[in-house]
């Protein structure tokens, strides 16, 4: 789950960000521009103000969200602010375009093949992956070893996919905004390869406690990353879908949606036809009880949320509680801002999420429920197979 870090900004002391207006005001951060309809504002913040935003967010029982904008080193101060205002305007306009870009979603009738595949979700395998990822001292995108776990994860993916789908491809994606790399697994579609189904989770972690560097990040977000790994394990045994299915593990979410923002901008620039985006970020803590999931209603697609409700009723059987998490709370916001339909099912309603994220206490313990988390692997698998089609 994204929250500001105390690290230095892009090329100097300040960062240009889009964030919740109320959160910025609570933190005492001056606004450069704002939009009343979306509740999002533009601000230029110092590292100290990033910490204040984080403290204000956690004081509200939330994870503070912002998107760090890609300011270029050659830009002058006036150009920076005009660029920021244009990006805020794009965000406002994207809301009206989301539904027009979403193709018709398939009617929901239980598919016996999907029902059978869901039974293969394994809680013990899921736990093994969460414990493996959270065993790295840190997965911080600006640490001294930002890609140690990335390279190790790629090897796990290579072993997972060996002997399954020959056409599947694993890519490490380098970024301009962070030295950390994102991971993409792409399985090309058989009949509609230009239509893309995206599933994502961020793989980085952060510790915001003063003087602490260890960041196990079991819930945030080894859980969502492991949910996708488990879903991919089973999907690989099912063969290819009609549409292309892509799994992403994003870099640098905790420092301002860095990896996903670059990827989504690139897909928009190349006019990629992304049918739908699923984001998994924190799934291990059943704050509202097991099998109760939050569905974030802000900066997500209404049509896709409605389709998620059908998916849940048809295959999962959880109870959905609608909630809001604020702009930039996770990587779905990157896709939404580029006009792609996205959803984010969450471990609980937002004010009942895991309380110890971004600390050394974010580990697997008695509060962790892999029965609850396995539900999100099932959601990811059903999402991929239903929306991918052809099974």
Kindly provide the name of the CATH class of the largest domain. Answer: Alpha Beta
Taking all Cα atoms into account, the compactness measure Rg is 19 Å
What sort of overall outline do the alpha carbons produce when their principal axes are compared?
globular
- Share in β-strands: 15-25%
Strands in their spatial order, largest beta sheet? 5-6-8-7-9-12
Largest sheet: 6 strands, mixed
Order of helices and strands: EHEEHEHHHHEEEHEHEEHEHEEH
How far the N terminus sits from the C terminus, by CA atoms, comes to 33 Å
The count of β-strands is 13
Structure description:
The chain has helices at residues 21-26, 47-59, 77-101, 112-118, 123-134, 148-161, 218-235, 258-269, 302-316, 332-337, 370-388; strands at residues 15-20, 33-35, 40-45, 66-68, 169-173, 182-187, 192-202, 243-250, 273-279, 292-296, 319-323, 342-343, 345-346. The protein has 391 residues and is α/β, with parallel strands linked by helices. It folds into 2 domains: 15-99, no CATH class; 112-388, Aminopeptidase, CATH 3.40.630.10. The strands form 3 sheets. A 6-stranded mixed β-sheet has the order 5-6-8-7-9-12, with helices on both faces. Strands 2-3-1-4 form a 4-stranded antiparallel β-sheet. It has a 3-stranded mixed β-sheet with strand order 11-10-13, with helices on one face. Helix 7 crosses helix 11 and helix 9 packs across helix 11. The chain starts with 14 loop residues before the first strand and ends with a helix.
